[in-house]
Amino acid sequence: MNTEIRGLALMFVATLVLALPLGKYIAKVYSCKKTWLDPLFIPIERLFFRLSGIDPTRKMNWKEHLVALLTINFVWFLFAMAVLMNQGWLPLNPDGNPGMPADLAFNTAISFLVNCNLQHYSGETGLSYFSQTVCIQFLQFVTAGTGMAAAAVVYNAMRIHVTDKLGNFYNYFVKSCLRILLPISFVAAILLAFNGTPMTFEGKANMVTMEGDTVQVSRGPAASMVAIKQTGTNGGGFFGVNSAHPLENPNYFTNLVENILILLIPMAMIFALGHYLHRKKFAWVIFGVMMTGFLFLLIPAVHSEMSGNPAISEMGLAPNLGNMEGKEVRFGAAASAYWGVTTTVTSNGSVNSMHSSHTPISGAMQLLGMMTNSFFGGVGVGFLNFYIFIILAVFISGLMVGRTPEFMGRKIEAREMKIAMLVALLHPFLILTGTALSAYFVNQNPEIGWLGNPGFHGFSEMLYEYTSSAANNGSGFEGLADNTPWWNISTGIVLILARYLPIIGPVAIAGILASKKYIPENAGTLKTDTGTFGVMVFAVIFILAALAFFPALTLGPLAEYFSLYGSVN
Amino acid sequence: MKSHLLPAIRLTFVSLVFFSGIYTLAIWGIAWFAPGHGNGKLLEYNGSIYYTNAGQNFYSDHYFNSRPSAVSYNAAGSGGSNKGPSNPEYLALVQSRIDTFLAHNPGVSMSEIPADLVTASGSGLDPHISPAAAMVQVARIAKARNIDETHLRELVAAHTEKPLWGFFGPKRIHVLKLNIALDQIK
After folding, report:
1. A90 vs B contacts (CB less than 8 Å)
2. pLDDT digits (tens, 9 = 90+) for A186-208
3. Distance separating alpha carbons of residues A95 and A114, to the nearest angstrom
4. Contact check, Cβ <8 Å, B126/A210
5. Residues of the domain holding A119
6. Which residue, A150, A528, B87, B98, has most beta carbons within 10 Å?
7. How many domains does chain A have?
8. Is residue A119 helix, strand or coil?
């Protein structure tokens, strides 16, 4: 096995080995059982609740949960807008970067608020250290915590007891940030700092190179931010090129750490569900479905990137490095393709290579990862997306065998199905409408100057931007000139809808189901912890999510694939 | 909504102090013990201080050249070309880089040139090249500096960084370190 493939195997095995115990720990945190970190965190938690005037034991129904969630998110939005527009005169701005104009600040505030981290600016010139730390890093913690808290509500609702009281939102939120995200980020930040990621408040440094050129080197408080960026499936980088930057991701070891973090919590949340509900087999079925989907995307992407760009191989170059445009030598083609798939299936959106320069197959796999958006998915919200597909699969299989569809001992009826269908159809609606509108504008006005590449790839740039927004991913085909009012505002709207409706939907369904009569399992119950049901869920995801996008994929990456590979042979 | 607004504002404030303030300062304090005191790894040579991880632009014939860059190795910013694999303008650019390389390295055949030498990196600041990319430049440098080729080959081999723990990831060469060693030969 060559060393690049071996590196991928190591990354995956290490993620799994860490996710298993972490899942157990997360389940303990949400069910308020004792953990070994209690002596440290109980006093801090008490302080949090006392200073905020919150009673963490007051139980809420699903509607109260959503009101609490949306209210605090609104406060964060106003705060983020204020910081970004005024960063020019706020402290910690050694490079004198200006405040953001309103449309860019709107896009940036929304994008970090919804855990997407789409960036229409470049970190080095677009943000002050104050914004990076007080606005961006803050949102990277709390929005990840929000997603996890919403998942915890749904976990709670899936238990056997009949109730409308599903725990306290603030309690889940603070515990997620403090007991799960913080310790992991803390360890990761230290590893990064000791491998050369800067952690300083000094401005840009001047450097004269050996050839005698004068250049500048951007620095900043990067290590602390990069750690939570990776841990909380945020993905918005400190520097413009994210984890491709040699200071943000200095070597193969840091790449290993950062890439493990992309998948770690999303994977652990599934195992946590198994421990929390005492249904480990059900968790393994979910894991199996996600894993299968992940491998379906990973293998073609890695193969395609390692084989290289046929148009360049045709010129007669040595082919053994693979496709190196937009990639770093220290990672190589394989680890770049692996990152590309892990970051798109999880709604992380950080990159260690430029996705726009990937081969069409790898680009298509990244798009599919975001279009399905449920193979592991973002922290917390990944499971919420998957939950919708479970509900759909239960309903369809119930109809197929002629039984009343039941999930976890509750009947699924018209109201829940309507919500599930709306959430499932929202995703393709947002992506395809946005892309169609933009393609129309480009067609009407070819001089508009949005696209960085001609032809099919130009279409893929627009498709990718809306897919990334709707999946709350945040990566991009960065050839697109996206810092314009149209892109800032239209993707901003997509971001809001695609974040909150897929949280509201599953929480509502779970809340409604929890208050229904509990029907104990009997011979007629559709078993959800079997391989057959796994296949059923996979089929629903494939038909609903993947095939809805097939025509759009045909116009973009598939057309580029056939034009590129067809002309060579 | 109203009953949640005040707790939300207060919780936001406490979270800010903790996740932006205390956490950041703790990491900042610990990073002081890291190489370069949290400024990133530094490398001192001949009285100059270089950032080890920020790649430099080497373009002279008597140095091992670094990869093409979309930002000319100015680490004030960063960026890739973002060109798609089928873009005709991009493919013409790669072809012209190949032609330029062949003009500077007579006697080298096309099939010896590895892809990293004619493609721009993701960051525009890639500090590395592949071992093959160094080897293919040996003949030119040996001639420009009047040094024995086998000696240079040994130098390249000695500066080839192994995969992580000997097992994982690609081999690579740190261009700056190799060029410093090159300057020290005489």
Report:
1. none
2. 999 999 999 999 999 988 888 88
3. 28
4. no
5. 3-568
6. A150
7. 1
8. coil
